[in-house]
Design a protein that fits this description.
- The N terminus is likely disordered.
- This protein has a domain of about 90 residues: Alpha-Beta Plaits (2-Layer Sandwich).
- It starts with a helix and ends in a 10-residue tail after the last helix.
- The chain contains 8 helices and 5 strands; from the N terminus they run αααβαββαβααβα.
- α1 packs across α6 and α6 packs antiparallel against α7.
- It is an alpha+beta fold.
- The chain has a 5-stranded mixed beta sheet with strand order 2-3-5-1-4.
Length: about 290
């Protein structure tokens, strides 16, 4: 019963799809013959201005996602961070994340930024990093996503056409059952379509804006190498400091033992000396003559 009710709508949809333009197209063909010739001439001129590849066809536009990283040695990472932000924003980019680490006893100050830069400005921006500090460890990676982009575009076009057909079927539905079925299918396709459009938007953003990780570090302090006069002084000083540190540790460890054993020992010695003084007779006085 449901199938028979949908047949008129399906037949109408097939008829509309198979007759694009109908008799209007024939009438328009006669009325606009001169305009068509003018448009053809214009297209020929435009095609002559378009750059061609070796085979004579228009060059294919590729979609490439570029990511990279680099390290910049600066005197002050905090000040360097502000300069990097100014440089990136001046190129039309933006800062996605930023972190700074203050100097401590065990590590030097540093900063790290994740920036997005227009793809056509990436090379110039990296070159201008030399105005902020010494650029090191530059690494770039390019990923061709042209085929993935085409696949997304094709799936989006197919879903758009499918949703349009479902809307037409809903308008032609002659029963509540057919209308509910079409609405359910339309909701599912619209959700899929929005997800695909979101993926395509993200991919296009990745192609248009390259991602660059920028690390700002300070130059480590120079250290004396072992050997030579200065190396001997350094080694001797380290040895003296080590010896004194060890001696102080040993003295600190011995003090509790000296107290625990020395006080009883001193008391015993004092008692023995006192007893000996009582037992020993006084010296005899010399006899008078």
């Amino acid at each position: 019963m449901k199938k028979s009710r949908l047949l008129p709508a399906l037949a109408l949809l097939a008829l509309v799809g198979c007759t694009p333009g109908g008799n209007d197209a024939g009438a328009d063909r006669a009325d606009h013959s001169d305009a068509g010739s003018a448009d053809l001439a214009h297209e020929e001129v435009a095609s002559q201005d378009m750059p061609m590849d070796a085979s004579g066809d228009a060059p294919e536009v590729r979609e490439v996602v570029t990511t990279g990283s680099l390290t910049v040695v600066v005197d002050d990472p905090g000040a360097g961070t502000e300069k990097v932000i100014e440089l990136v924003e001046g190129a039309g980019g933006r800062v996605d994340s930023r972190s700074e680490t203050a100097a401590s006893k065990n590590r030097d100050a540093s900063a790290r930024l994740t920036v997005r830069i227009p793809a056509d400005e990436l090379t110039d921006t990296i070159n201008e990093m030399d105005t902020i500090g010494e650029t090191r460890n530059v690494s770039l990676n390019s990923d061709d996503v042209t085929q993935y982009g085409r696949d997304l575009d094709a799936r989006i076009s197919a879903l758009e056409a499918s949703t349009d057909r479902l809307v037409e079927l809903m308008a032609e539905a002659d029963s509540s059952e057919a209308l509910i079925a079409a609405e359910s299918a339309l909701s599912e396709r619209q959700a899929d379509l929005e997800a695909l459009r979101s993926d395509r938007e993200y991919l296009s953003d990745q192609v248009a804006m390259s991602t660059l990780e920028v690390s700002l570090v300070t130059e480590p302090a120079a250290e004396f190498e072992a050997g030579g006069f200065l190396g001997g002084i350094k080694s001797g000083w380290n040895s003296l400091v080590g010896f004194l540190s060890g001696a102080l540790v040993a003295l600190g460890a011995a003090i509790p033992w000296l107290i625990a054993l020395g006080v009883p020992a001193a008391l015993v010695i004092w008692l023995l000396r006192r007893r000996r003084a009582r037992v020993t007779p006084p010296p005899a006085e010399p006899a008078e003559s």
